[in-house]
């Protein structure tokens, strides 16, 4: 799982549905959630967690898309296997992985140093509170997924 530290900047919604805006290193993220605990408030330190399989990539993207989270990134590494390709990305928010098909990676001609846009649906991101003061001083982390199931 990918894990990015962020700060809640805005909360919209009602009892049943919430749209949460976050800042992660200067990048804007949006999370849609059905439930929101009272401990999540503007200014709260949180982790944004998401699967590498929930990250799509675009190269030379232009025009509008309905996906809220569009994060400019640089490709750090590309590890191909016959079916899947793991792409390590670096952004202002931190480093995270995208797991895509090798056919898609080849179609995009992904290489180290390429500039890409990572796309993540707001409903595919999850929030958790930063546990303690020591954790808030840490950097963003990437936890390799054991299973590649979506």
SSE layout:
Layout: E1 2-13, E2 18-24, E3 27-33, E4 45-50, E5 56-58, E6 69-80, E7 84-91, E8 94-101, H1 102-108, E9 115-120, E10 126-129, H2 133-136, E11 141-142
Antiparallel strand pairs: 1-2, 1-4, 1-11, 2-3, 4-10, 5-9, 6-7, 6-9, 7-8
- Rg on CA atoms, Å: 16 Å
What is the number of strand segments?
11
The N- and C-terminal alpha carbons lie at a distance of: 11 Å
Strand content: over 45%
CATH fold category name: OB fold (Dihydrolipoamide Acetyltransferase, E2P)
Helix content: under 10%
Q: Could you spell the SSE succession in H and E letters?
A: EEEEEEEEHEEHE
> What's the helix count?
2
Question: Can you tell me the number of structural domains?
Answer: 1
* Fourth-tier CATH superfamily name: RNA polymerase II/Efflux pump adaptor protein, barrel-sandwich hybrid domain
Q: Which characteristics define this entry?
A:
150 residues; mainly beta; OB fold (Dihydrolipoamide Acetyltransferase, E2P); six-stranded antiparallel sheet; five-stranded antiparallel sheet; 7% helix; disordered C terminus; Mo/tungstate-bd_C_term_dom; TOBE domain protein; molybdenum
Question: What is this structure, in a nutshell?
Answer:
With 150 residues, this protein is mainly β. 7% of the residues lie in helices and 50% in strands. Residues 133-139 and 144-150 have low confidence and may be disordered.
């Amino acid at each position: 799982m990918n894990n990015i530290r962020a700060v809640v900047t805005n909360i919209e919604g009602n009892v049943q549905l919430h749209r949460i805006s976050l800042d992660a290193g200067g990048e804007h993220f949006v999370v849609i959630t059905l439930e929101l605990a009272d401990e999540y408030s503007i200014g709260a330190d949180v982790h944004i967690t998401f699967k590498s399989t929930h990250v799509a990539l675009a190269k030379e993207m232009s025009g509008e898309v309905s996906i809220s989270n569009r994060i400019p990134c640089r490709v750090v590494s590309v590890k191909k296997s016959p079916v899947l390709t793991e792409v390590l990305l670096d952004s202002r928010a931190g480093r995270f992985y995208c797991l895509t098909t090798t056919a898609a990676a080849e179609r995009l001609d992904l290489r180290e140093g390429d500039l890409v846009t990572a796309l993540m649906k707001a409903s595919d991101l999850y929030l958790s509170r930063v546990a303690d003061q020591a954790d808030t001083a840490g950097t963003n982390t990437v936890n390799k997924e054991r299973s590649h199931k979506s």
